[in-house]
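User: I'm writing a tutorial on reading structure tokens. Could you give me a worked example: one chain, its sequence, then its tokens, then a sentence or two explaining what the tokens reveal?
Assistant: Sure. Here is the example chain.
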Amino acid sequence: MAKIKLTKTELKSQQDALKQYNRFLPTLQLKKQQLQMEIRNSIELLEANKREQQIYTEKLRSFIAVFSDELFFESLQGIVVLKSVECTQSNIAGVNVPVFEKATFDNKKYDRFATPWIFDDAVDALEGLVALREAGKIIEEQYRLLNIELRTTTQRVNLFEKVKIPECKENIRKISIQLSDLSTAAVARSKIAKKKTMEASA
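And here are its predicted structure tokens:
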């Protein structure tokens, strides 16, 4: 703790600082709660995304089982080509995070007459799985950014609660005691001086 001056000016400075910390602390605490809530939401979205991915994976497995051919999946992967992933930016609890919008595909052409009818469904399933994986990456990035902000906000809350506010209160206490002692001593000196003056004039 830095040494402080035991003066009225410093007392005013410490009192102003304490007011400022007490004014900002509730805002930081609210932000911390919001971030915690959004992080829980991100976890739920990730879990839902993984469940959906599992559904599409099972679909693809069923197609592969129907054809009993490993080359089927390889040819499918050669056809489905991810072109782009579109995202927007959103402000969540004061943090700018990416939000998945859609995945666009530029699939290679294939002869629909030379492939079984189920092949179209398999292409759709693989597109769905790829889109979900890309969406999952975006949600993971949201989670990462929110966690970084939560750590920073938590550090600030702890700094205010455990360091700055107690420090200001202790400084105010010390200065108040010193000023009170000085005031008492001044009154005592005044009385003594007055008594001596009276004695001298008698």
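What the tokens reveal: The first helix runs from residue 8 to 67. The chain has one domain: 8-182.
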